[in-house]
Amino acid sequence: MVMMPLLETHLLQTYHELRLAHLALSIMTSGYVWQEGDKETVKVLPRSLSVPFCEVSQRLGVPPILINADTVLANWKKRDPDGNLELLLTLPGGESVRGFFMVSLLVEFAAVPGLKSILDVINGVHDNDVAVVTKALDVVNQALESMKQALKLMHEYVDPSIFYGILRIYYNPLMPEGLVYEGVQEKPMEFSGNSAAQSSLLHSFDELLGVQHEGSSGAFLKRMRDYMPPSHRHFIENISSRLSLRSFVLQQADERLTHTFEQCVARLVEFRNLHINIVTRYITIPASCAKQLRAKKQDLTEELDKIGKAPTLLEERDCGFILPEPLTDLPVYYKPWMDIARNAPELISSHSLRLRIHDMPLLETHLLRTHRELRLAHLALSIMTSGYVWQEGERETVKVLPRNLSVPFCEVSQRLGLPPILIHADTVLANWKKRDPDGNLELLLTLPGGESVRGFFLVTLLVELAAIPGLKSIPDVINGIHDNDVAVVTKALDVVGQAIDSMKQALKLMHEYVDPSIFYGIMRIYLSGWKDNPSMSEGLVYEGVQEKPMEFSGGSAAQSSILHCFDELLGVQHEGSSGAFLTRMRDYMPPSHKQFIEYISSHLSLRSFVLQQADEHLTHTFEQCVSRLVDFRNYHITIVTRYITIPASRAKQLRANQQCLAEELDMIRKAPTALEERGTGGSGIMTFLKTMPLLETHLLQTHRELRLAHLALSMMTVGYVWQEGERETVKVLPRSLSVPFCKVSQTLGLPPVLIYADAVLANWKKRDANGNLELLLTFPGGESVRGFFMVTLLVELAAVPGLKSIPDVINGVHNNDVAVVTKALDVVSQAIDSIKQTLKLMHEYVDPSIFYGIMRIYLSGWKDNPLMPEGLVYDGVQEKPMEFSGSSAAQSSILHCFDELLGVQHEGSSGAFLRRMRDYMLPSHRHFIESISSRLSLCSFVLQQADEHLTHTFEQCVASLVDFRNCHINTVTRYVTIPASRAKQLSANKQGLAEELDIIRRAPTTLEERGTGGSGLMTFLKTVRDKTKYASISQCTTGNQVLRDLSMTEIQKI
């Protein structure tokens, strides 16, 4: 930078030239200042940069620093004739920087119709034309909503850690004395960093709507206007000087105008709330994490401390199936192998790996003498083989592996007793080293896919680490059975159960460190083999070893010995194709691992021992182990759904539609088509995972065990039915699932389908000592699923005081005690208000596009559902199809109780639906509702007493209930009605506008206007809401006439 010549600026003659020059000089300035981070900043900007920068800035009327008008407004170009955009210049941070600036630009684009309408508002106010102002404000309102939707894309395209840890420093001055601009001014100059507050959008809308910011916030926003191009400032000042829209709205007192104005203000508040969420995710949370890390002085990148630090687990005798202390290098003779293997990702990306391997010498393998040398050689050769085969993707595979790679690979494999292909024992068990003395881990060799590859293999290694205590306890179980020692067996099984739970917790980290689109679109093909793979249906010829092609399965989680051991321990038997596949996968394990599994199988009949002993504690511990193993497999299915099933579905649609909706979708589209429905090990992935033994249910003895079983079986059922969405539903539920599900349901008095009592009431646990809650089981949809169920659970918790007060109301009515009834009703009113406030949290934690496009179908049933008009056959239970409604808020007992309490009567189809929904409640809940109905006539009591305080409190309860139902209707509008409308428009227009719209378009079309319970959703909700209104005292005597009048009005309209 110091060697750059001092250039004159007078040759910059056009405005566009000056803007580009300012952008380039600001990027250079920011890079010069922050090149070494915040620890080695500079105090002086060299003359060759500072002089032209200040001259250009003076001519433009903006400060000489990187501003929003540079990085966003003047930093784009059309990448192709289709209008796709690209940045002109960028900063460190890769795709996240591109995403940040591009999403910010999309927000600006989304605002354009609203900005253009501001002049119409000004003219309409000047001409006293209410219609013009209303119409223009409606455009502003839509623009604010579009800005919000555009801003949401930030979550898709910007990594918080990259924004906070890399990009953000180029925005924020951390220089208390300022910066000397050499050749311009001797004293340091101070300028604020780039900020969203420098965008003219919100300033314009604030002035339009009369939003005033005071104090330090107002002063900061005014100062930020000095960082805008002068024409932008003038436009804002023009709005301010020519308009008093709020006064106009108040003077006109026009209902539609007032509503539209209020809607604009509400949209502006919503946008700012979302912006706060963005700031929290990209600054506040990372800042908090950074503080903690600095305080603890340790690297928690892979969260090893959650499972157990490496030094304590990686002692040689305690390694489980992990190779202790793998070698990091081979003898110097094998340098050609290691050089290529270490650079495999770069060589593959540059399409030069095959060329390098062709030039590689044929090396002898006899110099590899130790087991660890052989394991590292196998890893290096397998990485090279996988890269060689799949370098050009599935369309240009090879048929022959060259001699200089195939001969040594087969020799090493033969000595190890392993197949010559990339396996789990390579990439996970023998592919790690300690990165530092604290025990943090790093990979030895990797594949294309960057941090997601690292995350995938290290998280899988954590699962192996978590299993170690359980594996070490298996010999204790065997010895305890041999010695007939119940206590020893129970204690050892307890350790096994905890280990399986720890494995699940470790597996959850996959969501944190592995990007689904990168796993599916880039990395997954390199784990694939050449058996049961349509891309290489004939296998692969290993030149110099065998003339005929050889077939080997790819790397698979089924090659891990962990679950094989626990299956043998607990007596879990896999039959059919799944059993055959698992048995075959044992040939892909190191021989010592396979022998240990066989040792367990030959020495043990734990199930028989548990049954013979009939010891309550032992039986409970055994059942807990089985339950946790089921939980782990359920969670693994969730992982597979997120990382394979959903991306495969997206890829199919993209290929069908021949369109590209974003960088992520581009990666997904490149994924191999032949692997869409298969595991990398060659198994039919969902078929394999769902195949399970037919388990007896008589060991489920307590109510809680039955409830958890019902939850687990219902989750599996909806996953099985809706796995492929609406287009490939099933007609028969397999016997191994349907028989136990129906038995458990019969015992509980519930239907065999996912119901509200499963997904909400019995699906939580305390996450920590502070009482924070977590779900037990979930399904596709990520954080939005968690948010949906958790908020709904909070609604139930908020209702508790009101429910507890209902017996007080009943007793007070029975004893003719007005004071008791009034006091109890006051609690009910407060509880209803609390559930409304709680329901509002749905907007914070649930993304409408994810709820509608991904999650909602799993709540659907097979009654009144056009997707499954004939219902579902429960194999082994009944030959004829059975029909059951899906999970619905109408299955919550709360509003049924409050309706009965307040005398709210629902008639017609809505009433019939609500009554049917009671069959989906627990019997004890139904009995409580019926108890209220049979013992109470509160409305009559209130009328008889004619007590002003009592009447007011009763009316307040009814009003609160109406408010709650209005709030619920708003929620349904946001999460169902609006996305359904968008989906229809997309189907009609055949276009995709963004990731959110892509998700919505994938939603089942036949469910667009129906609730997951099967009701005609909005009609039902509004009918229920309207009926609630007629429970008020003022309507008790005139309600029937009002209903008749409404009916006649509607008839006259028709």
Automatic annotation (TrEMBL):
Pfam family, one: IDO
A GO CC term assigned to this protein in UniProt: cytoplasm
A molecular function (GO) term: heme binding
GO biological process assignments: 'de novo' NAD+ biosynthetic process from L-tryptophan; immune system process; L-tryptophan catabolic process to kynurenine
Binding site for heme b: 636
Keyword Heme (UniProt): yes
Matches recorded under Gene3D superfamilies: 1.20.58.480
Source taxon at top rank: Eukaryota
The UniProt record lists the keyword Oxidoreductase: yes
Keywords carried by this UniProt record: Dioxygenase, Heme, Immunity, Iron, Metal-binding, Oxidoreductase, Tryptophan catabolism
Residue ranges of the TM segments: none
InterPro entries, per the entry: Indolamine_dOase (IPR000898), Trp/Indoleamine_2_3_dOase-like (IPR037217)
Similarity-based family: Belongs to the indoleamine 2,3-dioxygenase family.
PANTHER family xrefs: INDOLEAMINE 2,3-DIOXYGENASE (PTHR28657), INDOLEAMINE 2,3-DIOXYGENASE 2 (PTHR28657:SF4)
UniProt-recorded name of the protein: Indoleamine 2,3-dioxygenase 2-like
Organism: Cirrhinus molitorella (mud carp)
